[in-house]
Specification:
The chain has helices spanning about 10-25, 30-35, 35-40, 45-75, 75-95, 100-130, 135-160, 165-185, 220-225, 225-255, 260-290, 290-315, 315-345, 350-360, 360-380, 385-400, and strands at about 5, 195. It is an all-alpha fold. The protein folds into two domains: about 5-185, Up-down Bundle (Growth Hormone, Chain: A), CATH 1.20.1250.20; about 220-400, Growth Hormone, Chain: A. The chain is globular and about 60 Å long. About 50% of the residues are buried.
Length: about 400
């Protein structure tokens, strides 16, 4: 190795970043974190559901802000800002009382959501640049950490709520932990330097390579491409299937005859398969390429929605278990598809901003999940919501097949 070159410590950066994503993912454990607000403050389901929708909006806006700040002030300082916002947001949420739910929207949805959105974008954009040869595996590991948070930290928070810590103590602890972990890991973050030795990307000779010349697109150029809007829609539809099922997985299992203990366990199982889906999809991107991996993911989404619908119609607990496991896998594939698709189609130079724009599909997906909840309330059963979700999954497959090149 030349004296003018520097070996990469990319695996250390990835390991630290996966740990940070594990804590950042607590924002998705809202189904657990909202319980004491309903029990202690008497806030209704609509008020608490709106908080999650606002959180997703702030999360996506945080991604845009993170890409802007990283260009202006660097990734380390941007990471520290995310740690401060997320930490203060969670800590101040612990000091709320039942007087006004609007303050919850400001502390949890706006502050914590914005901070975690910034961290999410900066971590993924920075770390993936160190893995030109293993982008899929890298993002899969990061996404697995993010997805595992609901199962690991969410359950710990649930136990803490029931202890002497209660709502206030638990949120304060979460805030301190978020600030400490995100702040510490931000010190590890850095972009690859000019003389750093990274593995050379070997072009595939197995027929799985893209059939177009890859180049860097600016955000403005990307938004003018029809391929972007088709991908945006298919990702929103595919994500909506997982979002919707997660929101009522426990009650769905009970409705087909599962015992409450089994139904509660299935929520955790779904989260585990969600994590597996993220890293498996990442590995498949590196192994099979974009086209085959996205085809597998969209077909899996159709199968998951179809089997779960069949379980509702027949009242089969076994089919429900299979459907929820497959839904977890398909849902886990979505965030990994976003990162890998944007990188392979629109390049790495403007990845941070382009990724944050594509990630706004989460806002659309959350609104579709709200529509499914309204269908459930209107028709009094899960058949109508799953007919909609199955239809959207089929449309996602059609859109996927139509995307050939940027």
């Amino acid at each position: 190795m030349s004296k003018n070159t520097k070996s990469s410590n990319r695996w250390l950066i990835l390991t630290a970043s996966v740990f940070a994503m594990l804590f950042a993912g607590i924002i998705y454990a809202w189904s657990i974190l909202k319980v004491p607000f309903a029990q202690d403050f008497g806030w209704n389901a609509e008020q608490l559901s709106l908080n999650f929708t606002l959180t997703m909006c702030s999360f996506c806006l945080g991604g845009l802000l993170g890409s802007f700040l990283a260009r202006k002030i660097g990734v380390k300082l941007t990471g520290l800002i995310s740690a401060v916002l997320a930490g203060i947001g969670m800590v101040t949420t612990g000091f709320l009382n039942s007087d006004s739910v609007v303050l919850l929207y400001l502390t949890y949805a706006v502050m914590a959501g914005l901070g975690i959105g910034i961290a999410y974008n900066v971590i993924i954009a920075t770390v993936s640049a160190h893995f030109p040869d293993k982008k899929g595996l890298c993002t899969g590991c990061l996404m697995m950490g993010f997805g595992a948070s609901s199962l690991i930290l969410g359950n710990l928070a649930d136990l803490s709520f029931k202890s002497e810590f209660g709502l206030k103590g638990t949120y304060i602890l979460l805030g301190i932990a978020l600030f400490a972990v995100l702040g510490l890991v931000s010190l590890f973050l850095r972009r690859p330097i000019e003389n750093e030795v990274l593995p050379v990307v070997v072009k595939k000779k197995n027929g799985f390579a893209e059939d177009f010349e890859q180049k860097d697109y600016t955000t403005k150029q990307m938004l003018k491409r029809f391929s972007f809007w088709r991908a945006f829609a298919l990702l929103a539809f595919a994500t909506a299937v997982g979002n919707s099922v997660i929101s009522f997985a426990r009650d769905l299992a009970v409705s087909v005859g599962a015992k409450v203990t089994l139904a509660t366990t299935l929520v955790g199982v779904l989260a585990v398969f969600n994590g597996f889906g993220r890293i498996i999809t990442g590995a498949l991107f590196d192994w099979l390429g974009r086209k085959k991996t996205m085809l597998i993911a969209t077909v899996l989404t159709i199968v998951a929605a179809g089997i779960t619908l069949l379980s509702v119609i027949t009242g089969s607990v076994v089919l429900c278990i299979i459907g929820l496991c497959l839904t977890g896998l398909s849902y886990g594939s979505c965030p990994t598809m976003v990162t890998s698709f944007v990188s392979s189609f629109y390049g790495q130079k403007h990845f941070a901003t382009n990724f944050s724009i594509m990630n706004c599909n989460l806002i659309c997906a959350s609104f579709i999940a709200t529509v499914c909840s309204n269908l459930l309330k209107t028709f009094g059963g899960y058949t109508a919501p799953f007919i909609l979700l199955l239809t959207l999954a089929v449309v996602a497959l059609i859109l996927n097949l139509s995307i050939k090149r940027p």
